[in-house]
Amino acid sequence: MTTPRARLEFDVLSDHLALMLAQEDLAAIEATVHDMSPADLVRVLEREDPDDRAIIYRLLPRELALEVFERFSRGMRADLLTGLRDEHVVGVFEHLDPDDRAALVDELPASVSAKLFSGLSDKERKLTAPMLGYPPGTIGRHMSTEYVRVRPDMTAAEAIAHVRAAGAEAETVYLLMVTDDHRRLEGVVGLRDLIFALDDGEPDDGAGREPVTVRDLMKKPESVTASDDAEDAARRAVRTTHLVTPVVDEEDRLIGILTIDDANRIIDRADEEDAARAGASEPLDRPYLITSVGTLVRSRVVWLLVLALSAILTVQVLEMFEDALATVVTLSLFIPLLTGTAGNTGSQAATTVTRALAVGEVRLRDTWKVAWREVRVGLTMGVLLGLIGAVVAGLVYGMDFGLIIGLTLVSICTIAATVGGIMPMIARAIKADPAVFSTPFISTFCDASGLIVYFLIAKAVLGL
């Protein structure tokens, strides 16, 4: 956790850099940033405008520049590469892991991407090409093609020797892929298991024991297919608890691996996007302070328009019951309470079920179970809130209004919880993002249905 003192020191450093930039004192800037940690440099560069960021970045030593670049968000990486466009940038691009290069392609202009790829060595271009063959959003775009594979007929000693020879540039060697001669995945074997099998596989006292082979040690693989949705595949990979998950094509041929670190990054990014959309905004690819005003407006205005248009339905409902409102003006006093309660109840249910869907706790076939559970949850909450609302409204406005508010709260909580629970399931069924699909629909439906129920109960109780 950042302490107040650390924050103060960072603010002083930022102000000092801003002053040196204004004075164009490049030597002083270079001396200052040379001694900064990568984490502090990232925080500084996130706050600078693109021109100043490029100036500071050019002054970094090569190794420090590479480490800082790897910590940037995808949006900041794209901005920096687009702005520099020189040999220094090509070197940074080549140093990236192949999966990071593939991810950047979606952020960069086509001309910049072409220039950067033309500067890659044949080896790095060959490592990156397989990922570009899969659409954005699939796990094939995030896999690593740098891995070590062994054959099942290798002895433990042969497999370890192969790791020594071929594993220097691999993403990881803790879990090795076992394939046949046609690259079809047969299993996985841990480096630890191979090391401990060496002693067991050596002949001892003329006993003539057979050497331990990879086939003796390998385990059944839990793989993902390259065309699978990235978030779904990442969550499956995390649930396996393995450091590495094999990525195969449609014919079960090994084409890459997904590390647990990459899987967690995919999940974190997906969770951030869901959180933003649940708040009626599009996620940002760049830190807030360097995101343009136009981008911020675009990320919010679409949702505001959707919600504004959906509010027309609420207006239509009020118009339907304008005679009742004109007769008993007190009815209008409770509208904010009821619509707010309905919306919050539906949003709570939708958030809970969306999370359960994301982590695999519920599936589409559980739709009716989810609906029945939310009916009971909504009814219980409605009874609790209804009793409180009935007592308060009854004491202030009379027993008739207490009865109306109590019955309405029971009804709308039940309806809102049920709708909020099944909307993410419907979204998943039609292959829409539950977080995107649920928010505007629940807001509209709960407001409109809540008001209809409210006025129907009021007309029945008051005899309007």
UniProtKB/TrEMBL annotation:
Alphabetical list of SUPFAM superfamilies matching this protein: CBS-domain pair, MgtE membrane domain-like, MgtE N-terminal domain-like
Domain CBS: 143-206, 217-273
Cellular component GO terms held in the UniProt record: plasma membrane
Functional note: Acts as a magnesium transporter.
Species this chain originates from: Corynebacterium xerosis
Listed PROSITE patterns: CBS
Residues spanning the membrane: 301-318, 324-342, 377-397, 403-423, 435-457
Record-stated family: Belongs to the SLC41A transporter family.
Protein's name according to its UniProt entry: Magnesium transporter MgtE
Highest taxon listed in the record's lineage: Bacteria
Pfam families xref list: CBS, MgtE, MgtE_N
Keywords assigned by UniProt, alphabetized: CBS domain, Cell membrane, Magnesium, Membrane, Metal-binding, Transmembrane, Transmembrane helix, Transport
GO molecular function: magnesium ion transmembrane transporter activity; metal ion binding
Gene3D superfamilies the UniProt entry points to: CBS-domain (3.10.580.10), MgtE N-terminal domain-like (1.25.60.10), SLC41 divalent cation transporters, integral membrane domain (1.10.357.20)
InterPro entries, sorted: CBS_dom, CBS_dom_sf, Mg_transptr_MgtE_intracell_dom, MgtE_N_sf, MgtE_transporter, SLC41_membr_dom, SLC41_membr_dom_sf
Localization, UniProt: Cell membrane; Membrane
Record flagged with keyword Transmembrane: yes
